[in-house]
Amino acid sequence: MASPSVSTTVQSGRIRVLKEGSRPLDKAQGPVIYWMFRDQRLKDNWALIHAVDQANKAKVPVAVAFNLFNQFLGAKARQLGFMLRGLKQLQHEIEHKLHVPFYLFQGEATQTIPNFVDECGASLLVTDFTPLRQIRKAKEEICKQVNDSVSVHEVDAHNVVPLWVASEKLEYSAKTIRSKINKLLPEYLIDFPVLQPPNEKWVMEKQSVNWDNLIEVVLREGAEVPEIEWCDPGEKAAMEVLKGSKNGFLTTRMKNYHRDRNNPLKPKSLSGLSPYLHFGQISAQHCVLEARSIRKSYPQEVDVFLEELVIRRELADNFCFYQPYYDSMRGAWEWARKTLMDHASDKREHLYRREQLEKGKTADPLWNASQLEMVHYGKMHGFMRMYWAKKILEWTNDPEEALAISIYLNDKYQIDGRDPNGYVGCMWSICGVHDQGWRERPVFGKIRYMNFAGCKRKFDVDGYIAYVKGIIPQSKKRKAEDPCGTKANDSYLAS
Predict the structure, then answer these.
(1) Are residues 123 and 146 in the same domain?
(2) Could you say which cofactors this protein requires (predicted)?
(3) Domain of 130, in residue numbers
(4) 92 and 186 inside one domain
(5) Is 425 left (phi over 0), alpha (psi -120 to 50) or beta?
(6) Per-residue pLDDT tens for 41-91?
(7) What's the rounded Cα separation, in Å, for the pair 90 and 116?
(8) Do 301 and 404 belong to one domain?
(9) What is the pLDDT of residues 350-396, one digit of tens each?
(10) Angstrom distance (rounded) from CA 331 to CA 367
(11) Which among 5, 54, 259, 419 would be 20 to 30 A from 341, CA to CA?
């Protein structure tokens, strides 16, 4: 938990001291380094605010470092292209508006970040928060690698209420965490301070990044899943999607959110913010503040939006942080594991291999449409993701295989894959996480059931299938015309 000795303009509850350096920060001589990972933005970034503030207190300069992993968790051109284009803009903004240098490294962060800290003689390493095990493990190793005099602070710049403050344990459901978060919102849902350039100038040589060459390499190596083009990456684009005058969610599309958010034929009713939230190109806290400012006009819509953006999203972080097996059957509740294993040997009407599922080659045209929407469009509607995952459970040999395939496909094709929301979405659909037991059925046991007939009652299934068929030729045509596409987007959060 946060050390009481940390003096900062950022609330102490938002900071965890991962390593206390042997030299007090107020007597430190070396610069502050912010290792940016999850929150890739200049504005409304508590981790960056903390880094600059600590640098000013110690009268030392500050720099931002970003480490590009090699196809992190299977990310391809679709995800890496979107991220790198956003980072290219971010480097320009940070260096020209904040006068802080931005360094890009490639390889293993457990080597590049400690090496940079050592080279700079840094006294403090600040990092943003993610619950994913790979980065948490890397942070543990970095704490061992850096000099004993170096302190390491972790700042939750992603959640409105810091994860470790909201709850100190694994929460069972939205019901159990909702009151905890709502109780703390008055304390943590505050306006961001205006971030000014640090007092001390950076004196070391700055780095020149050949972004175009780097992007070209990433697109070539990850060409199996090409970029998508229907929205721009970066902070400016994110703000436009949130509240732009032409097609902003809060300015023009919010009025349809409550009524149409679960209709796969009306994707524009969703916020379109999830890729920006996933890559940290926009602050969830900023989105909440903006949404609250129009609540008088759209009370029901705003309340539903904030349930998804705050409660459900932060519940997903809670699950991945406190449940080490967040992407396996071992992470399911005991009742769910038992009922799934009791029915693991039940006869399946269809059995499909991963390759068949990936190509959308099943007997269910609705499922095929949802899979192809994800493959070609980079985004599957949130309602369809539930149906999609549950059918994988129904059509594979056992729950373990179903979960592994759903996570593989989600992470490979979704622009917002490799995210706590994605892991929890698959775990909810297949393993009943954050859900309850239902009437027992073959294969599913007591896991919530969904079928084709139920979808037909909720929306125009034939219309959705036709809609997907209509967008696929466009995607293929764009890919043929421009193999180095420039854009990407949209939302999983039902938000």
Answers:
(1) yes
(2) FAD
(3) 12-158
(4) no
(5) alpha
(6) 999 999 999 999 999 999 999 999 999 987 677 789 999 999 999 999 999
(7) 20
(8) yes
(9) 999 999 999 999 999 999 999 999 999 999 999 999 999 999 999 99
(10) 26
(11) 419
